[in-house]
Each structure stands twice: as C-alpha cells, then as structure tokens.
Specification:
- By secondary structure, the protein is α+β, with helices and mostly antiparallel strands.
- The N and C termini lie far apart (about 40 Å).
- The protein folds into 2 domains: about 70 residues, Glutaredoxin; about 120 residues, Glutathione S-transferase Yfyf (Class Pi), Chain A, domain 2 (Up-down Bundle).
- It is globular, with a radius of gyration of 17 Å.
- The structure holds glutathione.
- Glutathione binds next to helix 3.
Length: about 210
C-alpha cells in the first residue's frame, strides 16, 4: 500500500473531501496533514508548485495534485469498489460530467451565493442552466454512478453538501426541492451515505465559517 499522506486533509475543502471519499471507498489508510492556506507550507509549495492548492496526495514520496486526477489515481492504484466505470464510453461520460461540474456548476453557484447585483443575477441564471443538466442526468438513478457512488457523485459533493449550506447562510435559493427534485433527492442520498457522513465537515462549523467570511 505504501505511505499515503493527504495535504489539506484537516481543513474545510470540497476538493479535499473528494480525495478523502475516494480513499475511504478503497479503504486506504492515510495521514491527514493540515495546511494553512494563508501561509502555505514548504511541503505544499514543493509538491504542488504549479497551482499551490490543496488537495495534494503524497504516495511513497510522489506528489499528485488536482482532486479529480487524484481520485482517478486512487481508483487505479488501489483495489476495492471501482470509482470510474470500466466501460470506456461510460468512463468517458463520467469524466465529462465531472469536468462539467468543475467548469460550469461550482464557479457559477459559488458566485451566485457570494456576489450581488447584476453579477449575482447572471450567475444565478448560469447556475440554474447548469443544474438543470445535472437534474436530467440523475433522473431515475440512485447515484450518478448508478447503484453506487462513483466519480461524478464524488465530483458533485460541493453541490450535494456545501451548496445547500452556503445558500442557507447567504439566503440565496438555488438547489430547491421544487425546482430540482431529482438532484435534491440525490443530495440527501449522497449525504446519508455512511462513508460520506464520516468525511463531510460538521454543518455547524461550516455555517460558522461561512458566516464569518
Ligand atoms: N482544481 C483544484 C481546486 C483546488 C482548490 O481550489 N483548493 C483550494 C481550497 S478549497 C485552495 O487550495 N486554495 C488556495 C489558493 O487558491 O491559494 C482541485 O480540484 O484540486
């Protein structure tokens, strides 16, 4: 198995949560290393000099950055439940939706919560447009990965857990049961999973953090 360390593993980050979830699913033991993003450690700068962001996985002294790439690495290196589908087409589709979530959903919904005025209105429209695609994609399925949690579920953890909390703190209505019943059901299903519950940050702590921003 080798020595596994997760940089950023003791903070609040939906991206770090993705890696924690993949490690949990595979049953990989690891050391979580805290990172102060306001005063980045020499270890972070050494292992992720390009982006200087967490998460970074350090496996036997080799560093891997970017959460989705780390999740794929974990899936390939360790035995256990598959995170990506084996079928090449389904695999490509999973990557497509994970990329879509990163590029279209997270930034738009984040901006919709934290901006004001015209920028907020524009981001809200973009968020609704993007979330509608996910609403269609999850229809009739328990998880994006089918019966089990897969890459897209892990990628979408921000939508399932963090977004409803931030929306509540900021009083912005985005992912409502009325507008997105399938996505709403998925979010509840995902957050009720035993592994997911173990890695998600405590809600009260997250609320306090966002209130103090
Ligand atoms: N695309 C990256 C995003 C990671 C990211 O944005 N991490 C944040 C913490 S949530 C970070 O390290 N921010 C520090 C900075 O931007 O300087 C990934 O998927 O890993």
């Amino acid at each position: 198995m080798g020595e596994v360390k997760l940089l950023g593993g003791l903070g609040f980050s939906p991206y770090v949560n993705r890696v924690e979830m993949a490690l949990k699913l595979k049953g990989v033991e690891y050391e979580a290393i805290a990172e102060d993003l306001k005063n980045k450690s020499p270890l972070l700068l050494q292992y992720n000099p390009v982006h200087k962001k967490v998460p970074v996985l350090i496996h036997d002294g080799k560093g891997i950055a970017e959460s989705l790439i780390i999740v794929e690495y974990i899936d390939q290196v360790w035995e256990g439940p598959s995170i990506l589908p084996k079928d090449p087409y389904q695999r490509a589709m999973a990557r497509f939706w994970a990329k879509f979530i990163d590029e279209k959903c997270i930034s738009a919904t984040w901006k919709a919560c934290w901006s004001t005025g015209e920028e907020q209105a524009k981001s809200k429209d973009e968020s609704v447009e993007a979330l509608k695609f996910l609403e269609d994609e999850i229809k009739g399925k328990k998880f994006f990965g089918g019966d089990n949690i897969g890459l897209v579920d892990i990628a979408a953890n921000f939508i399932g857990y963090w977004l409803p909390i931030i929306s509540e703190v900021k009083g912005v209505q985005l992912l409502t049961e009325e507008d997105f019943p399938n996505l709403w059901r998925w979010a509840n299903e995902y957050c009720s999973d035993n592994f997911v519950k173990e890695i998600l940050p405590n809600k009260e702590a997250l609320v306090a953090r966002f209130k103090s921003r």
